[in-house]
Write a structure and sequence with these properties.
51% of the residues lie in helices and 10% in strands. By secondary structure, it is of the alpha/beta class. Strand 4, helix 3 and strand 5 (114-118) form a beta-alpha-beta unit. The structure holds iron/sulfur cluster (SF4). Iron/sulfur cluster is lined by residues 90, 127, 139-140, 143-144, 232, 234-235, 237.
Length: 334
């Protein structure tokens, strides 16, 4: 027997919301999903009128939904934002080249300017070239560090006030789990914060922080949004994979687990006495760093010297290796 939409509109329900279990028709689902994102934006004070906001766009479901929903909420609620798309091209053949084509389609459909920055132009290395050097084991370390900085650089070039990223509730719950499993309570603060900011960098915010991944997929599907869904060809990230599988198993028996884990992470992270690293500027590139040299410069140094494993591991070991390398060069010169 057909189920009626539980919102009381009288229409036939076509889906069961993974987050709440409510049976809803398409229009009421759109309204509920959009209203929740709007509430996240308002309650978290994510934007101010007149701001220029870059949407970090990969062409995947999260950033596509984010760009689309920010556009409609901006118009519906008069946020007064100017929106631009900011993409990073890691240089991964068969993955990023195709997903960037989707971003270009979104640029045309949503009428937002698009800026693409590549690892090749910023660092002189594409991910294809890095994987050739280091293999497929630590490639995501390089990619993650370079991407974080590339977004900062792109945001500075565009002169934006804020970068909105597509992190969803599942991503955040996974990261909370990973940080707890690693015993890294200090990082909980950063991963659960809806806005991350320090005086040397442009703030980042997560408007989809409380949006379930399954609902993002449903929203994109029913809205017929264009997004790219192929996995990265260099995607081993086994540790996150275990956390993801564990979370999905828990979600099957208790759908609220995603929100529960986020709230646990939030309450753990407000405990007093957690020391966060002091943030300053890298003495070489001038971008944000808690060390004298930022991680991107250390990794790049390693690649350029033919010692790609240099920046992977403890910073004291990195310093020792750099010192050894410097002495060796000095001895060779002599
Ligand atoms: Fe980069 Fe790893 Fe993500 Fe691929 S899976 S885009 S290499 S971080």
């Amino acid at each position: 027997m057909p189920v009626t939409c539980s919102s009381g509109c009288g229409k036939r329900a076509i889906l069961k919301r993974p987050k709440t279990g409510d049976a809803l028709c398409k229009d009421c689902f759109f309204w509920a999903f959009e209203t929740e994102v709007h509430n996240t934006i308002i309650n978290g004070h994510l934007f101010k009128p007149g701001q220029l906001v870059a949407v970090a766009a990969s062409g995947g479901k999260d950033s596509t939904v984010l760009a689309y929903i920010l556009k409609i909420l901006n118009e519906r609620h008069n946020y007064g934002l100017n929106l631009v798309l900011l993409s990073v091209d890691e240089g991964i053949t068969g993955y990023r080249d195709d997903s960037l084509e989707t971003v270009k389609k979104n640029r045309d459909e949503y009428e937002m300017p698009l800026k693409i920055l590549s690892y090749e132009e910023l660092y002189g290395w594409s991910m294809d070239a890095i994987v050739k050097q280091i293999g497929k084991k630590n490639n995501c370390t390089f990619c993650g560090v370079f991407r974080r900085q590339a977004l900062d650089r792109g945001a500075a070039m565009l002169g934006v006030d804020c970068v909105a990223t597509g992190h969803n509730a599942d991503d955040i719950a996974e990261t909370v789990l990973m940080n707890i499993l690693r015993g890294d309570i200090a990082r909980l603060q950063r991963c659960t914060a809806i806005i991350t900011a320090n005086e040397d960098a442009i703030p980042r915010c997560k408007p989809l922080k409380y949006a379930y991944e399954k609902e993002i997929v449903m929203y994109a599907y029913f809205k017929r949004l264009h997004y790219f869904s192929t996995e990265c060809v260099y995607s081993p990230n086994a540790y996150r994979g275990y956390a993801r599988t564990f979370l999905k198993d828990l979600e099957k028996v208790r759908p609220s687990v995603i929100m529960d884990i986020i709230h646990s992470g939030e309450s753990l992270s407000v405990r007093e006495g957690i020391r966060m690293p002091e943030v300053g500027k890298c003495s070489r590139c001038g971008y944000v760093s808690s060390q004298e040299l930022c991680k991107a410069c250390v990794l790049l140094d390693g690649l350029n010297r033919g010692l790609p494993r240099l920046g992977i591991g403890k910073s004291s070991k990195v310093k020792e290796a750099l010192e050894r390398e410097k002495n060796k060069v000095a001895a060779d010169d002599f």
